[in-house]
Amino acid sequence: MRIASAADIQGIAHVHVDSWKSTYKGIISNEYLASLDTEKRAESWEKILNNGKSITYVAESETGEIVGFASGGQEQTGDPIYMGEVYAIYILESHQRKGLGKKLIKPVIAELINRKFPNLVIWALEENGCRSFYESLGGKIVNKKPILISGSSLIEVAYGWDNIQEAL
Ligand SMILES: CC(C)(COP(=O)(O)OP(=O)(O)OC[C@H]1O[C@@H](n2cnc3c(N)ncnc32)[C@H](O)[C@@H]1OP(=O)(O)O)[C@@H](O)C(=O)NCCC(=O)NCCS
């Protein structure tokens, strides 16, 4: 696991689009998933990496291909309780359930601790089976909200850790 650099933008965008398609098939409309574009994602990731606020780590395969990423930083909605947030963690389907997720999220959480965030929140779609990943890290559901993605009404759930150290 290492900190993402500008050279990783294409690789991150590829993982982002590919894992959205495999993760949200049957949850988010096929139309929307088919419209996801690696080049547009790469533009967004360029901005994210350049703004210097987010913490982004990548996981590489043995051949140096980016197979996963995780990012986090200050909580984005001004939540009165939770200060630190993991914004996203995505691993290519072919590389899931091999322990990479835990290895990838830990340096992001460690950096959030380093930046003095006392607690942590992570939002996930209620229908996403991967929520168990956050439960395996000790997260508890602390909030729920509706979200509209491409005309589909979905529910997002928030996993919270009151003491961020417990997520490590
Ligand atoms: C969720 C994700 C990041 C987890 O990473 P991972 O490398 O697959 O997970 P790990 O191997 O580190 O798993 C650690 C533990 O989490 C739990 N877990 C992870 N994924 C799970 C799943 N799909 N279903 C049930 N439990 C899961 C298990 O307890 C697992 O331990 P085990 O494999 O010994 O049973 C990864 O599967 C992924 O990218 N999924 C698709 C994208 C996604 O849903 N991202 C989160 C959006 S909110």
TrEMBL record:
Keywords: Transferase
InterPro entries from the UniProt entry: Acyl_CoA_acyltransferase (IPR016181), GNAT_dom (IPR000182)
Stored CDD domains: NAT_SF
SUPFAM superfamilies with a match to the protein in the record: Acyl-CoA N-acyltransferases (Nat)
GO molecular function: acyltransferase activity, transferring groups other than amino-acyl groups
Domain N-acetyltransferase, chain residue ranges per copy: 1-168
UniProt-recorded name of the protein: GNAT family N-acetyltransferase
